[in-house]
Amino acid sequence: MTFFALVLQVYDLTRSSVAVGAIGLAQAGPVLILGLLGGSLADAVDRRKLTLVTSTCLAVVSAGFAAQAFLGLGQLWLLYVLAAVQAVLEAIDGPARRTFLPRLVPADRLAAGVALNQLSGYVSVLLGPVLAGVLTAAAGLRVCYLIDALSFGAALYGVARLPAMPPQESAARPGLRAAAAGLRFIRQHPILVGAFLADMDAMLFGLPIALFPALNAARFGGTPQTLGLLTAALAVGGLLGSGLSGPAGRVSRQGRAMLVTVAVWGAAITGFGLARSLRLALLLLAIGGAADTTSVIFRGAIVQAVTPDEFRGRVTSVDYVVGAGVPQLGNFEAGVVASLTSPAISAVSGGLAAVLGAVVLRLAVPAFARYDSSSA
To answer: Nearest Cα to 323, choosing from 83, 91, 23, 19?
Structure first.
C-alpha cells in the first residue's frame, strides 16, 4: 500500500514517468552499496535479533511517510529521502530475513519453502494495491501510509516468535573483507552467477511498474482504481504461480527452467506494451507475474541449495541486491526510455530485451543451463 501511495503521490506532484522511476534510483543506490555489507553482518550476529532492530526502524520510516501525508507537505525531495532511508534499512533487513528459511525447513523442502514465502508476499501485493486504490479514492493516499505504519506491530510479533538464529562459530567478522569473500565465492560458482544474471536481465529491462501511471492515464481511464488493478495484476499472476508451484518443485533442471520463465516474462511485458484493452493488459500482466514468481522460486532454490551456511548471509545479500535493487534501476530505465520515446515503446522494447537476454545467457553460461538439482 505504501508503494502504491508513493508512486501515485510522486506522479501527482510531477506528472512525470521519470520522476516516478527516480524513486527506484533513490532506493537502488543504498541497496547496491549496503546490501553486501548487510549480508556480512547477518553472517556474524543473531539474525533474528538483527531483523527485530531493522523492522522497528522501518516502522519509524513508515510513520514518517504517514506524517508528511497528513501534514500535506508535498515535498518531492522528502519522499525521495524517506524512500532512500527505507532502502538502507531493507538492505540490512532483507538479507538477514532471507537466511531464515534453511534453518526452518529441511533441504528437500527448500523449493516449497521459497514458494510459500512467495505466496505470502503475493497475497500482500495482491490485496495491497486493490485496497489502496479504493481507500485513496475514498479517503486519500495518506490512509495507505498510516495502515502500513500500524501493520508493523504484527510483523514484529512474527519475528519475535521465531527461534534464535545465532551465527556459526567460524563466522567471519562483518565488513568489506567478509563481503569480498562472499563475492569471490559467487564468482567461483557459475551456477550462482547465471541465476543472478538471469534475474537481472528480467528486472532491468522488463519491469513496467514506472510506466503504469502514464499508460493508465493514456489508455485505461486514469483512475486510482484502474491503476490499482494494473499493479495487482502482476500479483495475481504471482499468487497463481506460487500456489500452483508444486510441479516447479519437482523440476531438476532449474537453471534451464529459469531461463524459460524469464523469456515468458519478457514476452508478456512486450504484449502488455501493445495492449489497448484493459482486460488484455491485465491478463498479460498476470501471465508475466506467474512467470516471474516461478523464476524467483527456481532462483531461491538454487541459491539456498548451492550455498553453505557460513556464506549464506553474504550470498543471500547478493540475492537481495539483485531482487530488490535491480528492479529499482529497471523502473528508472523504463521511465527514462519512456521520456525519450513513449511509455508503450519503453514496455515493448524492455520486454524484447529480456527475451534476448535469456537467449544470450543460455549461450554464455552453459553450466547454469545444465544445472541439475537432483545430482548437485
So the answer is: 91
Domain coordinates of the chain in residue numbers?
Answer: 2-375
Q: How far apart are CA 138 and CA 146, in angstroms?
A: 15
- Read off the pLDDT of residues 212-244 as tens digits, 9 standing for 90 and up: 888 888 888 888 778 878 878 887 888 787 777
- What's the pLDDT score for residue 226? 85
CATH class of 2-375: mainly alpha
As given in the structure block, the three cell numbers for residue 371 are 544445472
Evaluate whether 61 touches 145 at the Cβ level (below 8 Å). no
Backbone angles phi, psi at 136, to 5 degrees: -65, -40
Q: Which amino acid is at 278?
A: L
Instruction: Locate 309 and state its grid cell.
Output: 551456511
The dihedral through the CA atoms of 230, 196, 253, 350 has a sign that is positive
- pLDDT (tens digit, 9 = 90+) per residue, 44-53? 888 899 999 9
Give 3-state DSSP helix, strand, coil % of the chain, rounded to 5: 85, 0, 15
- Supply the angle between the helices 176-187 and 17-42 in degrees, to the nearest 10: 100
